[in-house]
Write a structure and sequence with these properties.
Length: 340
């Protein structure tokens, strides 16, 4: 019986199946209930009791090797089938990945927030549909004052108190009304102005507002904060320049310029050969604004600044048409994949 087991083991080992019929032949002969292996098990009765233990072991090994071989035969037949029905052409170029990317304005907003978060600024948001108080009056724009015309406002016909916010400075007011100094916050968001759409202007665009209120905040703090930002965002050789200006909500007020990083101040089209490009406005928060928001101007001072996200993005990536941001042209957007 032992020789018979060895012979069968050998036969199992050498068996090959190149089609389903041969596989079935193997199953019937070695696996099924009527297989030779099953026969041998039923013959155990005639084995001498002292040999039974060893015989049982041999038969179990035989059964196991038949089962393993059967699995092997199935998988090699499957592989053959797969490769014959779909031959793989290893010379084909790979399928390009179709992952999306962040919008350039999102990339800029994210970078600005990260830079200011590193020096303790948090992020705050306000509504796009505003009331007159938050967009104008609290910010020291007197009623009927021509300063309101600096920003071509979208009013709602039914209700003169409702406007689409013209700037993110409205969020300053909301933060100050709700919170207590020290306040260090950045407010990014969409703003709306009644402007004709052109290469340089859009009626919907984005700004980011910065606000810092505490005891003893000075103009030097403002300047240093803006310089830190300019170096982090545009490169460490960037310089800044503050030009006197006017905003109702800051006193003194200034226009913020950065040194032209495109020509290194040698003079180019972007900086109109001046070596400087404007990126926003800033100033010390007017005491009237603090009072309007229930903050004591004798105890606290602060600075604020506002920048256009489109403007900064256009400078950074040398984009010459603001309309590209809203056209969703995939050829434009794809170019920002590597910048994410
Ligand atoms: N809100 C101004 C605008 O939209 C920008 C600005 C200027 C914001 C000076 C400020 C600031 O916070 O201090 O033109």
């Amino acid at each position: 019986m032992k020789e018979r087991v060895d012979a069968l083991k050998d036969e199992i080992k050498r068996f090959t199946a190149s089609n389903k019929d041969q596989l079935e032949e193997f199953r019937l002969k070695f696996i099924s209930r009527k297989s030779v292996v099953a026969d041998l098990f039923s013959n155990m009765k005639s084995v001498l009791p002292e040999d039974r233990k060893e015989m049982g072991k041999l038969l179990n090994e035989l059964k196991h090797s038949a089962q393993e071989k059967f699995k092997e035969l199935i998988s090699s037949l499957d592989n053959r089938k797969a490769s014959s029905s779909a031959p793989v052409d290893l010379t084909l170029p790979p399928i390009p990945d179709t992952l999306g990317s962040l919008h350039p304005l999102s990339i800029t907003r994210k970078r600005i927030l990260e830079i200011f978060e590193r020096i303790g600024f948090n992020v705050s948001y306000g509504p796009e549909i505003e009331d007159d108080w938050h967009n104008f009056t609290a910010l020291n724009f007197p009623e009927n004052h021509p300063a309101r015309e600096m920003q071509d406002t979208f009013f709602i016909e039914r209700d003169p108190d409702v406007v689409l916010r013209t700037h993110t400075s409205s969020v300053q007011v909301r933060v100050m009304e709700k919170g207590k100094p020290p306040i260090r916050t950045l407010s990014p968001g969409r703003v709306f102005r009644n402007e004709a759409i052109s290469v340089r202007a859009h009626c919907i665009f984005h700004q980011v507002e910065g606000l810092y209120i505490d005891k003893n905040v000075s103009f030097a703090d403002l300047k240093q904060t803006l310089l830190y930002f300019a170096k982090e965002f545009f490169g460490k050789n960037t310089k800044i320049r503050l030009r006197p200006s006017y905003f109702p909500f800051t006193e003194p007020s200034a226009e913020l310029d950065i040194s032209c990083f495109i020509c290194g101040q040698k003079g180019c089209k972007i900086c109109k050969h001046t070596g400087w490009v404007e990126i926003g406005g800033c100033g010390m928060v007017d005491p009237n604004v603090l009072e309007n928001c229930n903050i004591d101007p004798d105890e606290y001072t602060g600075f604020a600044f506002g920048m256009g996200i489109e403007r900064i993005t256009m400078l950074k990536y040398q984009i010459n048409d603001i309309r590209l941001f809203t056209e969703n042209d995939i050829r434009f957007l794809r170019q920002f994949k590597s910048v994410n």
